[in-house]
């Protein structure tokens, strides 16, 4: 493991550089104190730990911008049932809350370990069960993984405890059942969240059985940092988001397994809205961002009947820099850039997925997996060697 204040250089690597994800060959990347300090050719290697990058492909670590870590305890339950049967009050998901706290925490820890080994350095997890739910997730997360935790309550408004108490342990708040909240209560709730130093992020337009008015109420009164899903969004709703600086996280596999539909990613991107990817509920979907990217790319080309509807670089951005932008972390995360954390996936150029590939980014999106990873670096330190 790299010691603090040690200078490390990846020498002569092929790397995907910058927010625009440009593939650069024979490049050196210098890391000091966990941050990227220089990217150029022939960096001085005096007093430096050298990592031979000649047979490596360096990619920015993934950002899983929406998942539910606290439903890791029971997986593959309820497949084939509707969204309402799965996650609405009284649904299948509530069975997961019946497990012991120890079992819940151990399952979250197992998910987190797998997440990191799969190349993800940042997650945003929605946490059920209020303050206790957030604490359960927070206590189970490896400190090497950057986590944004969004708290939710089980009950309808006015909720079972104070939003202020929740935001003492959570980064943000996800209000539920907003159709039952009045305009006056919305404004009061928004001010309380702001005063507590938190922000709003929430599911929106996922189910066709919920009124579209919920979307407008959320945008108008709560000023969310980002919205998740937007499967049922039409052009009117998409146009409404333009210039409001609200990001969107889409979960293609999650929406497909529950049968709710396909989010309008192409229309969102066309309007300049920042779109990121998430893997959604652990009990239904793996946390594998390779699978999420591949499924997204293939599905969008298929449903649009247009092979060029989206390019591989855009999909990779959705799994990296776009996630950082949506979460407000792009100053430090999301790309291999000077000044950012050295969170890097080092792929073996000799693995089956890359050995014959003519397009590195397409290989990452459509072909690669965890077996192709030589090492995962978090803040410049190799995670596998811990």
From TrEMBL:
Gene3D superfamilies membership: Metal-dependent hydrolases, Urease, subunit C, domain 1
Matching InterPro entries: Amidohydro-rel, Metal-dep_hydrolase_composite, Metal_Hydrolase, MTA/SAH_deaminase
Amidohydrolase-related domain: residues covered: 57-381
Coiled-coil region(s): none
One Gene Ontology MF term: hydrolase activity, acting on carbon-nitrogen (but not peptide) bonds
Protein name per UniProt: Amidohydrolase-related domain-containing protein
Biological source species: Candidatus Shapirobacteria bacterium CG06_land_8_20_14_3_00_40_12
